[in-house]
Specification:
- By secondary structure, this protein is α/β, with parallel strands linked by helices.
- It has one domain (about 25-285): UDP-N-acetylmuramoyl-L-alanine:D-glutamate ligase (3-Layer(aba) Sandwich).
- It contains ten helices and nine strands.
- Strands 3-2-1-4-5-6-7-8-9 form a nine-stranded mixed β-sheet, with helices on both faces.
- Helix 3 (about 40-50) crosses helix 9, helix 4 (about 80-90) packs parallel to helix 5 (about 105-120) and helix 5 packs parallel to helix 6.
- The chain is globular and about 45 Å long.
- It starts with a helix and ends in a 19-residue tail after the last helix.
- About 45% of the residues are buried.
């Protein structure tokens, strides 16, 4: 039987796991809507954070009754309660990077912008969510101006798809040159980086995303994967970028890593429900 002295020696040699983990683990916050079907929104963001091994926190802005086929109902939370959630998280746990998703009305957008400024969140990824994969509207038309004028200037990275980039830049986008011009116009709003996603350009065999930093353009190509199971792609992509930033990556490396991750999540997506199935957020663990 080991002596008490030997037991004590072994205990002192054991690493203090809980303290070291809590001190080092990156923290990522998603401010977005809930998808009851689990494929997009808060649910997709938290799955992505987990896949990237960052500690995920959430602020709900809206609750949707949603599945793979459609959005049958939206309930927006009161702006004051959205702010209360942000206060609860940031006054205690803090954050290394944050992202926004569905912010369906002007009052919620203004509430989120107020708190972003108050807590001086610099690593902010804005996914300017306007429509669900089903085509249902997730951003009220009258709220577009508040999103563009009040929130986008606070972004470190903004990630519009082509339809969203057309709304923000107010030009028609149908080519890579059009994506670059849209990026220029969006950058002039005040954000640090603009990532225009090219998945809607169906004429190409590749899905090419274009990053603009105000000086140079960078292309992020990937094979186009023919599947209907792409529900939650935008949410997952922006959450993956946020996770990379939380871990200390620069914008280009965070985007490159996120692009690789989301491409494989689409490649390994699966049929679930009767409409657009979800990505496989945990493909790396299979």
């Amino acid at each position: 039987m080991p002596s008490v002295a030997n037991i004590n020696l072994k205990l002192t040699q054991m690493p203090v796991i809980l303290n070291s983990v809590s001190e080092k683990i990156p923290r990522a916050l998603t401010i977005a809507g809930s998808d009851s079907g689990g494929g997009a929104g808060i649910q997709a963001d938290l799955k992505t954070f987990t896949a990237f091994k960052v500690f995920g926190m959430s602020v709900l802005t809206s609750i949707t009754a949603q599945n793979t086929q459609s959005v049958s109902g939206i309930y927006d939370l009161p702006p004051e309660f959205v702010k209360l959630q942000i206060d609860a998280v940031l006054s205690d746990i803090g954050v290394d990077a944050a992202k926004t998703g569905m912010l369906s009305n002007e009052k919620i957008i203004l509430a989120v912008a107020e708190k972003i400024k108050q807590y001086r969140i610099k690593k902010l990824v804005i996914d300017p969510v306007m429509r669900a994969k089903s085509g249902d509207t997730l951003l009220k038309r009258e709220a577009e101006r508040a999103l563009i004028e009040e929130l986008l200037p606070l972004a470190f990275v903004v990630t519009p798809n082509i339809p969203e980039s057309e709304v923000i830049s107010r030009i028609k986008v149908s080519s890579l040159d059009g994506m670059r011009e849209a990026a220029r116009r969006i950058k002039s709003i005040g954000c640090e980086y603009v990532l225009v996603k090219g998945g809607h350009l169906k004429w190409s065999d590749e899905a090419i995303d274009i990053l603009y930093d105000g000086k140079d353009f960078y292309d992020f190509p990937s094979p186009r994967i023919e599947t209907k199971n792409t529900h939650g792609t935008g949410c997952t992509y922006s959450a993956a970028i946020c996770a990379g930033l939380a871990k200390g990556l620069n914008a280009r490396e965070a985007i490159r890593q996120a692009k690789d991750y989301v491409t494989e999540a689409i490649r390994n997506s699966f049929n679930l429900g009767k409409g657009h199935g979800p990505l496989n957020h945990f493909w790396e663990f299979e």
